[in-house]
Write a structure and sequence with these properties.
The protein has about 350 residues and is α/β, with parallel strands linked by helices. It folds into two domains: about 5-120 and about 310-325, ATPase, nucleotide binding domain (Nucleotidyltransferase, domain 5); about 130-305, ATPase, nucleotide binding domain (Nucleotidyltransferase, domain 5, 2-Layer Sandwich), CATH 3.30.420. It contains twelve helices and ten strands. The protein has helices at about 35-40, 45-70, 90-105, 115-120, 125, 165-175, 185-190, 210-215, 220-235, 245-270, 285-295, 315-325, and strands spanning about 5-10, 15-25, 25-35, 80-85, 110-115, 135-140, 145-150, 155-160, 275, 300. The strands form two sheets. A five-stranded mixed sheet has the order 3-2-1-4-5, sandwiched between helices. It has a five-stranded mixed sheet with strand order 8-7-6-9-10, sandwiched between helices. Strand 4, helix 3 and strand 5 (about 110-115) form a beta-alpha-beta unit. The longest helix is centred in the C-terminal third of the chain and has 26 residues, at about 245-270. It binds 5'-O-[(R)-(carboxyoxy)(hydroxy)phosphoryl]adenosine and zinc ion. Zinc ion binds next to helix 4.
């Protein structure tokens, strides 16, 4: 019998209600209820709709997770929940449920960081993270390079986006091409049939002067505008839009910058291990190009299973289990959801 901590994790920061049970780095159950279809016709997540969907989904999701796991709630060592960042009303549903559950069971409660969970999730596939590690975190709302010395307590952000997140750029470009929300998976698929060299789109913050001030930062808003301008010009000329080529060329611009800056940061900080995380980490081109460039630079790369890259409860549970294993004290029961929780705060104390 393993002595690794048995932890239930609750995720409700955006449009996925996720509840998982892990033992250390092993998944026993991972249930996700998505409200993405309710938002699709609005082209983005509607916060009020998301909160209501979490309220409806959370208890059935909990029941399914417990029954699939083969353990009982009284066996748990702790409960972990996403404390932030995310949509306030959505976070509150998960945090309230976690407080009630932990309180009723008399178990410690860990309010953890959603973004750090996106990095921690890799441990479910590949075991404890090497230290230090350079994490490329690419989600719908965030894009950062992180120096991770200890996933439970020591994370330094060395670069971030100065405007849109990578996932946000995918979603906005999809929208302007008339593609459904969320745009990332659709563009990923369409790009496979397109030519990444068909159109040269700009690589944000890679010019010599930008690199002086923003060496490890990102910018995707100019790229999105460039795609919009290109499409408008073609439409005005009555040309048919080569959607697959636009997708492939846009995706190449995003992945080129993300991977080049990741390798440059790992090299500058003398870190040998790179880890990928966040919803955009499911992207096939990003995974492939990062692998190529890490191999060329002599860096080892860890990529979580694509199915675990988007929001889920397992990423929260595994981070909670790491907190328990590291002997971190639980969060005070009075802690609140924090929609702007900084990525450098893995645990609310
Ligand atoms: O991490 P996540 O599930 O939620 C946030 O915490 O934001 O990320 C969602 C984002 C969306 O913008 C979605 O379009 C993007 O991840 N995404 C992808 C892919 N799958 C999801 N982007 C590019 N390629 C994909 N295959
Ligand atoms: Zn996320």
């Amino acid at each position: 019998m393993s002595s690794a901590p048995l932890v239930l994790g609750i995720e409700s920061s955006c449009d996925e209600t996720g509840i998982a049970i892990v033992r250390g780095t092993e998944i026993l159950a991972n249930e996700v209820a998505s409200s993405v279809e309710l938002h699709a016709r609005f082209g983005g997540v509607v916060p009020e709709v998301a909160s209501r969907a979490h309220l409806e989904a959370i208890v059935p999701c909990l029941r399914r997770a417990v029954s699939a796991s083969g353990v009982t709630l009284s066996d748990l060592d702790a409960v972990a929940v996403t404390a932030g960042p995310g949509l306030m009303g959505a976070l509150v549903v998960g945090v309230s449920a976690a407080k009630v559950l932990a309180g009723a069971l008399g178990k410690p409660l860990y309010g953890v960081n959603h973004l750090v969970g996106h990095v921690a999730v890799d441990m479910l596939d590949h075991g404890p993270l090497p230290s230090p590690a350079l994490a490329l975190l690419v989600s719908g709302g965030h894009t950062s390079l992180l120096l991770v010395r200890d996933i439970t307590s020591d994370i330094v952000e060395i670069g971030t986006t100065i405007d849109d997140a990578a996932g946000e750029a995918y979603d906005k470009v999809a929208r302007l091409l008339g593609l459904p929300y969320p745009g990332g998976p659709v563009i990923d698929e369409l790009a496979a049939a397109g030519d990444p060299k068909a159109i040269h789109f700009p690589r944000g913050l890679t010019g010599r002067r930008d690199l002086e001030r923003h060496r490890f930062d990102f910018s995707f808003s100019g790229l999105k505008t460039a795609v919009a301008r290109w499409v408008e010009t073609e439409q005005r000329a009555d040309h048919e839009i080569p959607v697959a080529d636009v997708c492939a060329s846009f995706q190449e611009a995003v992945c080129d910058v993300l991977t080049a800056k990741s390798v440059a940061a790992a090299t500058a900080y003398e870190v040998r291990d790179v880890v990928l995380g966040g919803g955009v980490a499911a992207n096939s081109r990003l995974r492939g190009l990062l692998e190529e460039r890490c191999a060329t630079a002599g860096l080892s790369l860890r990529r979580p299973n694509p199915a675990l890259c988007t929001d889920n409860g397992a990423m929260v549970a595994v981070l909670g289990a790491a907190m328990v294993a590291a002997g971190r004290p639980p969060s005070p029961i009075t802690f609140g959801a924090d929609s702007g929780l900084p990525v450098e705060t893995p645990l609310v104390t």
